[in-house]
Design a protein that fits this description.
By secondary structure, the protein is of the alpha/beta class. Helices cover about 45% and strands about 20% of the residues. The chain is built from 13 helices and 13 strands. The strands form 4 sheets. Strands 1-2-9-6-5-3-4 form a 7-stranded mixed sheet, with helices on both faces. Helix 5 runs parallel beside helix 6, helix 7 packs antiparallel against helix 8 and helix 9 crosses helix 10. It is globular and about 60 Å long. The structure holds nicotinamide-adenine-dinucleotide and zinc ion. The site of zinc ion has 4 residues, from helix 10.
Length: about 350
C-alpha cells in the first residue's frame, strides 16, 4: 500500500482504512495481514458479486463460503441476517472465522452485524465499493439491520479489523450512487474543512469524470474528517452530532417522500436549507447557503425540496423525530464554511415558524 492508512480510533481499539487505486490487486495478501489464518466467508450482493474477480484478478482468496444477498436496502433485514448466520453454521465456520464484506453500505451493515453476533463476535474486514460506503458507512463501527418500524433499529457496535477502499471499484457505480456519496463529502467540507470544500469546487469536473487520483483524494480527506469526529466522540455523546448537518431536514424529506429521494439527494437539499437557517439566525455569514447550493448543483444534486412537499408536511415529519412534543426541533448548524456552531451539544433549537419560512423557499 503506497500511502499510509487513515487510522480510526474507537473505544475498543483502532483500525486502519487503506485507500488506494488498485489496492484490491493485493486482496489475498491484505486479508492474510488483517485476518491472519482465518477461514474467510465472503458476503456481497448480486450486483457486486460478478465484479469482484475483475478487481482482484488472481488475488481473490479462496473463500470458505461465498454468500450473496439480493441487491438493495430490502436485504438489510433480520431474515437475511439469520440466513447468512445459518449458512455459516451449516458450513461449520468456527471461532477462527473471518467475514469479508464486499459491497456498499447495505452489505457492510448487514455483514458487520452477522460478524458482531456470530459465535458472539468474529472479526470482519470491510471492502466498500460505493462512494457512500467509503466516505461514511465504513467509518465508525456501526452495524445493523432495518425493521418495519424503521431503519437501523437493530444493531451492534462492531468495528472492522480493517477497511480496504479501492476507488477503482467506483468506475462501475451508477451516477446516482456516486452523487449520493458526494453529498456526504460536501457535508464533510462544510462541517470541518473549508480548504477541502474549495478543493471539491475546483476539482468537480475531475471528480465527476471519476479520475482515480481525484476520487482517491476525496475518499481520503472525507475518511480523515469522519474518523477525527468519531474518534473524538465515537458513542455520539456530542461532537458526532456535527455529522448530522443537513440530516434533520433530510430525514424529514425521506419520510415525507416514502424514501422516494435517495439519501444523498435528501442530504443535499437539507444542507442548503440548514445553511439558510443558520444565516437567518445570524449564526453563519450571508452567502454561505448560496455557495453550498452552487457546489451541490454543480455535482448534479437537488438543492430544493420537490414540488408539492409543503413545509407543513416536513415540519410534521421533523416533530415525529422528537422524544417529546414540547421540545423544540434542533439542528446541527454551520457557523461558516468549515466550522459548526457549538450550540448546546453541537445542536441549536430553531423556532418552527422560521423553519417553515426557510422550507417554503
Ligand atoms: N454504518 C454506518 O455508519 C452507515 C453510515 C451511512 C450509511 N449506512 C448505510 O449504508 C446503506 C447505503 O449504502 P449504499 O448507498 O452504499 O447502498 P448499497 O449498498 O445498497 O449500494 C447501492 C447500489 O450500488 C450497487 N453497487 C455497489 N457497489 C457497486 C459497484 N462498485 N459498481 C456497481 N454497483 C455497485 C449495489 O448493488 C446497490 O444496488 C444504508 O443501509 C445506510 O443505512 C451506514
Ligand atoms: Zn447521511
Amino acid at each position: 500500500v503506497s500511502a499510509a492508512p487513515v487510522v480510526v480510533t474507537h473505544s475498543l481499539g483502532r483500525y486502519p482504512v487503506h485507500i488506494a487505486s488498485g489496492l484490491l490487486d493485493r486482496l489475498g495478501e491484505l486479508l492474510e495481514e488483517h485476518l491472519p489464518r482465518r477461514r474467510l466467508a465472503l458476503v456481497t450482493d448480486g450486483n457486486v458479486a460478478p465484479l469482484i474477480a475483475g478487481w482482484t484478478g488472481s488475488a481473490e482468496p479462496a473463500w470458505g463460503a461465498r454468500l450473496v444477498v439480493p441487491p438493495g436496502e430490502g436485504s438489510k433485514t433480520r431474515e437475511q441476517w439469520s440466513r447468512l448466520s445459518d449458512a455459516l453454521l451449516e458450513a461449520r465456520f468456527g471461532r477462527d472465522s473471518g467475514i469479508v464484506a464486499v459491497g456498499g453500505g447495505m452489505v457492510g451493515d448487514l455483514a458487520g452485524f452477522v460478524a458482531a453476533t456470530y459465535l458472539r463476535g468474529v472479526p470482519f474486514v470491510q471492502v466498500p465499493t460505493t462512494l457512500l460506503a467509503m466516505v461514511d458507512a465504513s467509518v465508525g463501527g456501526k452495524t445493523g439491520v432495518d425493521t418495519p418500524h424503521g431503519k437501523n433499529l437493530i444493531g451492534a457496535f462492531h468495528p472492522p479489523a480493517a477497511v480496504l477502499a479501492d476507488p477503482r471499484t467506483l468506475l462501475t457505480l451508477p451516477d446516482r450512487e456516486l452523487r449520493t456519496g458526494l453529498a456526504e463529502a460536501v457535508k464533510h467540507g462544510l462541517i470541518a474543512d473549508a480548504a477541502y470544500f474549495g478543493w471539491i469546487e475546483a476539482e468537480a469536473d475531475r471528480i465527476l469524470r471519476r479520475e482515480p487520483a481525484a476520487l482517491e483524494r476525496l475518499v481520503r480527506r472525507s475518511v480523515e474528517i469522519k474518523a477525527a469526529v468519531v474518534g473524538a466522540d465515537e458513542r455520539e455523546a456530542g461532537l458526532r452530532a456535527t455529522l448530522n448537518a443537513g440530516h434533520t431536514v433530510a430525514h424529514a424529506l425521506e419520510h415525507a417522500t416514502g424514501y422516494g429521494l435517495a439519501h444523498g439527494e435528501a442530504v443535499s437539499i437539507g444542507l442548503v436549507a440548514e445553511a439558510r437557517l443558520a444565516e437567518r439566525l445570524g449564526l453563519a455569514p450571508a452567502g454561505l447557503a448560496d455557495r453550498v447550493a452552487a457546489l451541490l448543483a454543480r455535482l448534479d444534486l437537488p438543492v430544493t425540496a420537490p414540488a408539492g412537499l409543503g413545509p407543513a408536511r416536513l415540519l410534521g415529519a421533523m416533530r415525529q423525530d422528537k422524544k417529546n412534543r414540547a421540545e423544540a426541533i434542533r439542528f446541527a448548524l454551520p457557523a461558516g464554511l468549515g466550522s459548526m456552531h457549538p450550540g448546546d451539544g453541537w445542536t441549536v433549537p430553531v423556532p418552527e415558524p422560521l423553519i417553515a419560512e426557510v422550507l417554503a423557499g
